[in-house]
Amino acid sequence: MTENRVLEDLFLREKPAKILMGLKSSKDAVYATTLSKEANCTYSHTTKILTHFLKMGLVEFEKKGRIKHVKLTSDGWDIAHNVEAMTKKFLQIEENLAKGVKKGAKKTANGKKEANSK
Q1: Cα distance between residue 57 and residue 78, in whole Å
Q2: What three-state secondary structure class fits 107?
Q3: What's the Cα-to-Cα distance from 60 to each of 69, 70, 88, rounded to whole Å?
Q4: Which domain holds residue 44?
């Protein structure tokens, strides 16, 4: 698998995005089990995703005795912020589509939509 494909698989899937958002929303270091519950996936899948994030420099682990916490690095915060912004934009587009609003369309005098001819 090429490097670009790995990145696409990692960030354009629901579970990794949810784990990233869980880390972002927590502000402080959290348990991997907490993230797995938030993302609705198994602990082993969560740790596999976190290992990928660690290799990319997006997260770091803090180990205190037997307890291991996870937190975002500064690069992780940047990526999480961008994923969050992208998610919000997609939701906005979906809401507009549900309302029947299309970019580049205008209503005619009889109330029907017609595409702008620019």
Answers
A1: 12
A2: strand
A3: 8, 6, 26
A4: 3-100
